[in-house]
Amino acid sequence: MPADQPSARVLAYRVAVGVRVREAREWANLTQEGLAHAAGLSRDTIVRVELGTRTARLDWLVQIADALDVPPASLLPD
């Protein structure tokens, strides 16, 4: 596997984080656009994080968690 290809475990973790972000966003009754605005990120970033096609940087997770008023750890899978 090339060095730039993430492992299956990493890909699965990305998807799991995305599910948590989407669930928290829906619980907060926010659209992707609304969350993006509140978190100071682009809608494309939120979409990619939720779909698991982009690894969420730690600072993004903190911004997203702050916008959703949840602890950052709640966006990480068990």
TrEMBL record:
<dbReference type="Pfam" id="PF13560">
    <property type="entry name" value="HTH_31"/>
</dbReference>
<dbReference type="GO" id="GO:0003677">
    <property type="term" value="F:DNA binding"/>
</dbReference>
<keyword id="KW-0238">DNA-binding</keyword>
<feature type="domain" description="HTH cro/C1-type">
    <location>
        <begin position="21"/>
        <end position="75"/>
    </location>
</feature>
<dbReference type="GO" id="GO:0003700">
    <property type="term" value="F:DNA-binding transcription factor activity"/>
</dbReference>
<dbReference type="InterPro" id="IPR010982">
    <property type="entry name" value="Lambda_DNA-bd_dom_sf"/>
</dbReference>
<dbReference type="InterPro" id="IPR001387">
    <property type="entry name" value="Cro/C1-type_HTH"/>
</dbReference>
<protein>
    <submittedName>
        <fullName>Helix-turn-helix transcriptional regulator</fullName>
    </submittedName>
</protein>
<dbReference type="InterPro" id="IPR050807">
    <property type="entry name" value="TransReg_Diox_bact_type"/>
</dbReference>
<dbReference type="GO" id="GO:0005829">
    <property type="term" value="C:cytosol"/>
</dbReference>
